[in-house]
Amino acid sequence: MTQLILIPGLASDHVMWQAQLAVLPAHYRTQVTDVATRCDSIEDMAAALLAEHPGELILCGASMGGIIAMQAAHQGGSRIRGLALLGTNARPETDDIRALRETAIQWFADGRAAEVLRANVPLAFHASRIRDSALVQSYMDFVLKAGAEQLIRQNRAIMARPDARKTLPGLACPALVMWGDSDQLTPPDANREIAALLPHAQAVELAQCGHMLTMEQPDPVNAHLLRWLERLPAQLG
What we know:
Layout: E1 3-7, H1 18-21, E2 31-32, H2 42-52, E3 57-62, H3 64-76, E4 80-86, H4 95-109, H5 113-124, H6 133-159, E5 175-180, H7 188-197, E6 201-206, H8 213-216, H9 218-236
Parallel strand pairs: 1-2, 1-3, 3-4, 4-5, 5-6
Helix pairs in contact: 2-3, 4-6, 5-6
């Protein structure tokens, strides 16, 4: 039976998927993978995911998790029966963002991760949510729990990521591409590009939503994801 694998974003874990795990039907045998914590490149993360979860898969990745999902879909071929991509980016790293990441990496190495994260909260969440102390603290907690080593390793993996735009047109599985209209980390145009490149994609833009859409807008995310999952058998024929 096809299994659903949730793939967290950078330095994230199952906490970012709590609202989805609460409603996903048991027959999907949903698991949250941690391959990003154990491998050094996007390609190796994707290969490990496929090796650890045999058989047919539905992949659902957010942010860095979406980058891993796109690579796993490329590597996995017909094993991948559905691909849900939430707030992600198929493009390779730009020089400007690479320079920003190198600075952040140095801060992480110097024990200043909390400073970096606090500065990035306005980029991670919609302006209407940054005063939600419980939401922001939950985000801060799991990223800081990952630790400096993971923050450094995973940022370096993203910096070296492949250009997924080259392989997306060859993916035959049904896809769901969902993003926040105010996402400043993986902006709407990057997500629209993914939807346009995938042959069988449904595109959804969430209003008044930033980058952490599974946490910011859990009810709309759940509704769209469940509806898409329910239609998969018909889409697959």
